[in-house]
Batch of 2 targets.
Target 1
Amino acid sequence: MPADSKTNESVSMIDNTTGKKVDFPLLTGTEGPKVIDIRTLYSGLGFFTYDPGYTSTGSTESKITYIDGDAGILRHRGYSIEELAEKSDYMETCYLLLHGELPTSAQKEDFENTITRHTMVHDQMNNFFRGFRRDAHPMAVMCGVVGAMAAFYHDSTDITDPHQRLVASHRLIAKMPTIAAMTYKYSIGQPFMYPRNDLDYAENFLYMMFAVPCEAYKVNPVLSKAMDRIFILHADHEQNASTSTVRLAGSTGANPFACIAAGIASLWGPAHGGANEAVLAMLGKIGTKENIPAFIQKVKDKEEMLMGFGHRVYKNYDPRAKIMARTCHEVLSELNIKNEPLLDMAIEMEQIALNDKYFVDRKLYPNVDFYSGIILKAMGIPVSMFTVLFAVARTVGWIAQWSELIADPAQKIGRPRQLYTGAAPRNYAPLHLRK
Ligand code: CMC
């Protein structure tokens, strides 16, 4: 904890049974609510806190990303997501997240070169892929292959060496699109496409996804720009479930590839990164606009969830969703898609929800996943790959947060406590006496 986080303020807690009182210092960050430093709670009063879902718990100090959920603000290293999405590109945003500052042109060139030259994967990984069923969910393959990177890149698993940590970071950012595209190619039985060093990050990803060796493939610049923006919008989101998973795994000293594989597993769930896939499944299930009111009623009756809506932190419109909705219109217009029933349904659902007391009272707004699936589908990305794309983009956030954790001399193994409500002590009964 940096010294400048300390304030002269404190809050006190009194154990009414014993009358014992302990003062807890209040900490203040650059922005955001004050934070109670309760680290001496157990030694001072003998209590733990109980906060399932961590709704009131700050798990770490971080300099990377700031969210004001009530105001709908997201900033990386002080820069607003709106400005980054409009003026920056994904490589620059990656550098910013990793290093804390926007790169100079020389630094940017050097970083892009490094990432480009790490995009190929060890050739033996091709064989590793072949052990999976062709119909495996790509996220299952991602968990396995990214975890297995530790077996292929031994020379970047020593987390005590800052150089190895940086090499592992570069390898992960660079190879994720390659592995992601390989999961897709494997699922459809097409040959893997090697990365191309003359393309930028987003172009190269689209190329590896959609090119085949027997003919030339030209990347549509509007689509690669949209893909780059989608990557920026997903790059980091402070201490969300998958990032916290990466940090928790990292706190044990596990190697970075294992930690990122843990993050991918955590992202997969429909309450988190799996929501983009779930939104399309939901729209498909609703079928037509006429069925929307009945579906909304089911949501209000708690029989269904409105996927792509709601957020633990945002109690306002997710700023990423606004940019995503705009990008959606741009992509559909570029692709000359005049009537996209899914988009029409999504817009109508949003309007109904934003004016319905159930959603207004609970401050439920569209999140980043509400429109992203419609764009990705229009770009020809199969639905089962949506969460994989989220994982590709989020890798930089995970690795930046992991690096911050490992470089922090005060870091400890993450080890929450519990409220035990199981059986009280009892004697072991021999098998023949058990009923
Ligand atoms: N549809 C219907 N009701 C909802 C929804 C929803 N999508 N989200 C929350 N609610 C209701 C919830 O039932 C509860 O109502 P009540 O007070 O009557 O019990 C109230 O709103 C508060 O919800 P909560 O469960 O306390 O909220 P949470 O902070 O625990 O959950 C969430 C946040 C994102 C898991 C949840 O909103 C959700 O499951 N949304 C759908 C899945 C989704 O779109 N996830 C992507 C999140 S953004 C991308 C990412 O970070 O991965």
Target 2
Amino acid sequence: GVAAAAAPPEAGPGPAWQSKCPWGAPKPTSISCSLADVMSEQLAKELQLEEENAAFPEVVAVAEGPFITGENIDTSSDLMLAQMLQMEFDREYDAQLRREEKKFNGDSKVSISFENYRKVHPFDSDSSEDEVDWQDTRHDPYRADKPTTTPKKGFIGKGKDITTKHDEVVCGRKNTARMENFAPEFQVGDGIGMDLKLSNQVFNALKQHAYSEERRSARLHEKKEHSTAEKAVDPKTRLLLYKMVNAGMLETITGCISTGKESVVFHAYGGKSTNEDDKVIPPECAIKVFKTTLNEFKNRDKYIKDDYRFKDRFSKLNPRKIIRMWAEKEMHNLTRMQNAGIPCPQVVILKKHVLVMSFIGQDQVPAPKLKDVKLSSEDMKKAYYQILNMMQRLYKECSLVHADLSEYNMLWHDGKVWLIDVSQSVEPTHPHGLEFLFRDCRNVSQFFQKGGVTEALNERELFNAVSDLNIAADNEVDFQAEIEALEKVNEDHVQKHGKKVSAFPSDGDPPIYDE
Ligand code: ADP
Ligand code: MN
């Protein structure tokens, strides 16, 4: 309904549609408004904005989505409850709005959409439903004109009939009339027809609420159109993040660092520790949110299904829990690495499928991946030996194989290499553990050989240096076959003697490479 809607409201008797308007035709008002009024309104708006920005950091601010329907939602927070109630209210409001819209348009050929007045704007609503026509134009026919006369003296009348703007009755009526200036979606009831007098206090409270609602609505629209990162995070996850901020554990969540197939990583400034054990929260944190869209994780089954640590649990779990297990796995693996002194993010907290860890980088800038940084040949060599050492310690001290080790999952920070992304890491005795290790070795060898490190071992030498398995084969195919044979021997052992198995036999214990 573009044509009718775009027309500005005419002076004098309103056009026919006005009589049908559910809010009634706007009455011409000649309310005085002092400069001080305008200023304070502006100030209030500004303060409101400031307050909102502080209270609702960007990434977690948007509160659309079905909070109410979620199972297991912890309702301990008052603010959360308030938000949930608001959501419920908004949904009811939208339903009412839809009925009004239908009634208003009837079977008229020209129809007006109330879409923009809706409180809840679902992500996945069909775009045709979101189409904006006249609402986007400057002049909204539903919005009463702002009072135009602005007498500077602050009073009206003459002699003994003089009344100032502080007069209670005048002020009350004025406030009631001014409610018409709130956005039409803000329900004010039928106060205007009833000669309702609002106290300044009530009026101001309503005004604040109307402004914040307008802001919220605007923000929803903005987000809907511009944010791709947020689409990756569902409402329940946002709620979780929001609670971390609300609890003061995180100061603010500043934005998204990475959107992958299986996870989204955010940057946050750390807050205060919330419990007594007084674990200091790092000044900057990375929040890894494991995606709850299940199909992305299908191809990872083999990592976790055969990991004996998770074997008993796997069969009993629903997909949502399996995803939480990835996060849990990353946490355990990081902790092992931390204990072995391998440079990696430090675990801060795990909540469901959300893992908070220390941020590798500074001032919101994440450390570059090894693939993106141009190192001097000296640093390159240094990085290589450091990685060799880390792979050995990971294998021997942590009893882990990274299983996705490459220049994509190593960051260069503070003049050294940091290992990240260890949710898929497995123990060497995992049925495919040695194959994963061999793949890791291939990635590392190739990267450093291409990078001009002449000392770099080839993948087979590297594999032996890490595992001490001393496989003698001098070609890829035979080497691979021996690896698989070893895995088979191990599997048989597991079948016979139960799940916990000793590490692979190795002759002697050559020292770990010392940087
Ligand atoms: P995935 O590759 O599975 O999406 P990662 O754990 O590799 O998940 O994280 C994706 C990206 O996010 C990394 O490549 C890195 O750039 C960034 N990142 C992850 N964790 C951190 C961290 N603790 N500090 C800084 N950046 C991080
Ligand atoms: Mn990664």
